[in-house]
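Table S5 (text form). Sequence records supplied for joint modeling of the two-component complex.
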Amino acid sequence: MKGKYATPPDEFERRPVPKSALLGLKSFVGQYVGEHVAGTELMIGPLFVAAGVSAFDVVFGLVAGNTMAVLSWIFLTAPIATRSRLTLYYHLERICGRNLVVIYNLANGIMFCFLAGSMVTVATTAVGVWFAIPMPALDDRYPTTAGWVLAGLGVGATISVVAALGYRTVARVANYAAPWMILVFLAFGLIGLRQMGMTSAGDFWETARTAIWKGGDPLPGQVKFTFWHVMFFAWFCNMAMHVGMADLSVFRYARKSWYAVASAAGMYVGHFMAWLCASVLYALQLGLNPADTKVLPGPLAYRACGIAGLVCVFVASWTTANPTIYRAGLAFQAIMPRVSRFKMTLATGMVATLAGLFPAIAMQLLGFVALYGMVLMPMGAVIFVDFWMARSLGFRPDYALASGTSFNWAAGLAWFVTLGGCVALVLNGNIQIYFVSLPGWFAAAVIYAVLSRLLQRRIVTRRAGT
Amino acid sequence: MRRIAMTLSWIALTALIVPPALFFLGRMELDAVKGWMLAATVLWFVATPLWMERR
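The corresponding structure-token record, covering 521 residues in total, follows.
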């Protein structure tokens, strides 16, 4: 999952990044590895096991899905980023108009709040071990004990105040922690595998098949995961970033568009090794006591690596929640520019804290992450069509910039109609949320192209008549 | 000073991952692994800020 970015001194928010500020491949490798070894990995790995996935499905599903994610960054995001060299927000503003970007910011900010909330939940499980607080079960939706609420409030308040006061300090801690955290995740896997009875690398597949990812029915309240679920989840868990184009803001600094291959480092360290290692810890817990189905990163990490494991859970979730709360605050501040960044970040952190008290988000993280991608995906389709196809399809790109409109209805309707259609399909049980975003992307692209032709022609005709 | 701090960071990373590898091979007890990992964690977070981002 997405995490930590270093903030450059001049962010070139409303102009293309100049040649002098471009970065080499190495910068992106470090950034993507750091970002994708985050607190969420400690939930996602165990939830795969809870979803009753088999060893073949999880290993090869992750290989396929992560490859698709990397290809999406390489062929969808980076080519546009390195040609326009604009942020996502300015790019959207030029196409959609200011008012539609405000709505996009609101949606983005809300999703960031819930994502940060799940990180508060994860961090609270680490604090819960230290203070022996009773913790929620896999199927719990609401806060279960007063101790959990107090611990969550304490963790959330601390994270929020630090995000508001000292974002850059925590961003630095995130950089320091990245190499250490990768090795702690690897240690989770090594220790867990040994405790499951594996004594040599040659035993891995047998242990994986018979003791870790055994397949069969999912645990109560979880969706059964197959190869296709794993593949689409791995592909789309960062959908907002690649297909949704949020990483235009990152790759606008890349000298060459193929530097997006750096995302592979993040995918195969964070979304392969880290997920599998976290899975091993949960499978070990189920092996020791099949009735103990709680997915609690704190106790899982503590059992394997002691205090270092607990520190890893806390640091991983804190360093992910920090920039997430900060970004959500910035998104909301763009809507209410008169409110100070400090107050907005603090208020956002409080909302995230309240969300984090409810274990439902973290325990259903697989579904929430898919929802996050689905909500923001249509705007990626709008940008893609506008950038590559507008002129050949007979309409004007960057329409809001050219016409001065503050709300491009073609883009707005492409977003709302696609989203409405996807939600209806999921709620009616026609298709699961993990798969709906792929047809949704094509639907958004077609709707935007057709409506742009129709609406722009009507406006041009009306202007010609007056 | 920077070189010393970098060396200490490398030692910390080694002390972090070698004990779990030894545990996997059945050559170290889990309690000892946990102790090594805690010591390595402390060393890493003390030494690394002294050189990282100061290039």
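Note: DSSP finds 19 helices and no strands in chain A.
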